[in-house]
User: What shape does this take?
Amino acid sequence: MIVLFLFLELLFVFYYKSTLVLLGADLFSYSYNDIFQTVASSGGVVVLAIISLLIYGVIVIKFLNFFTRKIKLSLNVLVLLFLLVGFTFLGTIITAKHNHSDFVSNITTNKTLYFLEATHTYYYPYINETDIYADTYLKNSIATRAFRKFEYPQPSEFPFLHKSIDEDVLSSFFVTETTQPDLVFLVVEGLGRAFSGNGAYLGSFTPFLDSLAQESLYWENCLSNTGRTFGVLPSLFGSLPFGKNGYLEMGEKMPKSLSLINLLKKNGYSTSFYYGGNASFDKMDIFLKKNNIDFVFDKDTFPKKFAKLPSKNNFSWGYGDNELYQYYFETKKKNKIKPNLDILLTISTHSPFKINDAAIYNDLFEKHLNSLELSPKEKDDYRNYRDQYATILYADVSLKKFFENYKKKDNFENTIFLITGDHRLPEIPMQNKIDRYHVPLIIYSPMLKSTSTMSSIVSHFDVTPSVVTYLSNKHQIKKPELTTWMGFGLDTLKSFRNQNKIPIMQTKADFVDYLVGTYHLNNNTLYKVNEHLEEYIIENDTLKAEIKSMFEAFKRKNSEITEGKQLLPDSLLVKYTP
Assistant: This one.
């Protein structure tokens, strides 16, 4: 038992050391192929654990065998010793919620018991008894009084169907054009605000992106709606609920939905998705096919002349950012006859953080450290994560090259670019729970007549509603009168506020985060969030109970999609999608 306990702890410690993420029940939400790719990219976590187990196991068993031959102990003493070992093991659990850093809290957590508890919760979830007065109670709650609400005309049949958003917050920033614009979404793997943009607490490692933000509409307090890539396509392009393990995990059973992809295709756009890895990962290809996308380009379609990212354990995720952008331009050489919606999702800033020409970016990393005015000790701390920071610098340089090349295209003047991260990469220590979701959001275009930096909190849920409303008002895109969007649209207020209730799924098995105004519920802990998205624990049982009730109400509603309820009637699909 001792060997087994310590082997498991060793395995989970190695996993945490590689990813800086505690392994929970999300392990059970991935396919074998997805697990294989993730483990292969992490670099020998399992191999090291097994070797360490063998060495440790042999030593312990030999010692115990020798010990028991020399000394005979009574049953009572043996039981006492076993209980002592057991309590020592259990005693390594430290509730570190009052620590200043989420990183410290995770280090001091017993990794094995975290996994076992998460597994138990996954298979035997807590079932909240339905309170028939809950909705009335919440409507009168002090926590919900100032927030925007949807009206749901048919909640029993279509739980998320509501009247479409009419507020157009983007048009005032753009010049009036009659030609429908091209839209290019650049979704950068792991791009977090912790190391990007003005005020980044780790110092910014994206100098080009910072300069672009000054010429753009820039939301410095944007949140991704999931802590992994599995959620970015449904959240950003469909403003969709999660289902049990993420919308994509439903696979072929994903309910039919409205999205930016199928709405624009119905309105004459050519739609494309570009990804340096395998589009089947996280079932992204199924989602794209169900949304009638025209073209999917992934690593299986790249010409042989492009070099893949360096392999580790004979595995490579695919192609780097620079190669992805080059391939994109090659496919766009033909004369276009339709406006385009192009989605590019990168992979370079992902474990194992191996890139081509690494020496160049390692040198750039060292030079960049000098510009941050750090002490020698702080520089050494940063060097522990050199590979991660070097790939961020690489991603930024690749974006700079992308825009230099795009400016040569005839349609540059009539293109709107949107840049964001799918989530904040966790392999650099995080300061708090919400840090994992804090990403930049930039809308850049030569069509902008004014720029602005917004401190209001928005999420990926808000993007599609605002883009569709803008295109409807300015470019006669047919907008549905009813939608299922989770977001109300982007908030363009410059000062800090949050008018929304934002559910966030950390992993496919951990639906534990809910943001209500400036209060963040994570599991059973309530935090207060400030204008820099720093957060502090709040001891207010009444407020916590109200927000937990809201979260549970949303979870009940969200589960109805998994149980088979549809998002919208067929009449809307026929009218507004291909």
About this structure: The first strand starts at residue 162 and ends at 163. Residues 45-70 form the longest helix (26 residues). DSSP finds 18 helices and 16 strands in the chain. Residues 112 and 451 are 49 Å apart (CA to CA).
